[in-house]
Predict the 3D structure of the following.
Amino acid sequence: MTAANPPFAVCEFTTLPASFEEDLAAYAGAGADGIGICEIKLVEGREAEQLDSFRASGLTVGSCVPAVPSILPLPHLPGPEAPEERVDALRAGVRRLAPFRPRAVVCLTGPRGQLGDGEARRTVVEGLRAVAEEAARFGVPVGLEPMSAAYCDDWTTITTLAEAAELRDEAGSANLGITFDTWHLWETPGLLGEIERHADRIVAVHVNDWRGETRGWCDRVLPGDGVADLPAILRALDDAGWRGPYELEVFSDDGTFGSAYPDSLWREDPADVVRRGRQAFLRQWERAGVEARA
């Protein structure tokens, strides 16, 4: 006997070309339970109206992603270069997203760039403390996200749950947790054991799959269309006690980031992508064979 379907949400990066309002309609219409809001889709001066639209949609909120999502600069995304300006932008993003009452706000370290390892780490730790302190004012945890070792030079200083947990402990904030992303972590040696050890710190879960012949960082596929052992990962997360939403997050470049893949999901109808994504996730959930919950 398998468990009832877990809550399923969609991060707005999955339907990047669509507007916030279009996402609300597509996600609700396709049977999703929630939405992971990206700050870049909020319109200056219309936040109150968009909050009302969200409340009328019937969706819940999963994790939210600030417009400037990292403490150190990201080569592929716009934003300030100075870490202190980025931290200010992250804190402002937290304040802007807080009225939507997110389960968590996602935060990346960014790559060390030209900084030495020690200086980069000190900068990240100080930034995490400041962002976590701001988020705590609104009762929102921050989810520090470890990212794929294959692309760490462009995105991150941490690539495993263990490294994220160590950095979190160094920052010393009780409001700082971990964002788990299947695309980034599926190849981690001993991943299932890491999930068991660090599950109590996970505050957000993103699901997607790794294309067999991945063409770049912006080339994810729907669950089951790639090579990751998602059933094993989902089973481990459930066994470790995760009961929050599983958020579909698929980057699929249509030329926005320089790679116009002909099979880009961003070229397709958002409602259809979400419908297929939900069905694909539920097939992986069924394959996981999770025992029925009380």
In short: The first helix runs from residue 20 to 29. The two ends are 12 Å apart (CA to CA).
